[in-house]
């Protein structure tokens, strides 16, 4: 059972807070973060949802992709690499017939376009995966995370 106490700020920690509000009488919720941006979350139609938002587990993969993307772009910009286009495709494998059903394997494929040195791209992704990305650090204890990339 989880402790129902509020999170207290510690001197060496940053507090992050989001708010979740139920939108309908099923599983559609609206989440708002510190920047005020609203995200829709919903369940599948199999459980009575309306596909009106992302699934919570999809959002974990989106968060991983977003966290790593920011790292990689920052590193490549510092190395004066020219990025014309950037996207990531993420695939996660979860345990079947398990509750909970955590991710056990996650693969990210980075698609980049521009005047880019492949070794600098590889190093930027390695730095994200091994040093900078907090989402990777959060998921790595339960999931094997690997990547590949293509430069167009």
From TrEMBL:
It comes from the Bacteria. Coiled coil: none annotated. Gene3D superfamilies: 3.30.300.20. It holds the Pfam family OsmC. This is OsmC family protein.
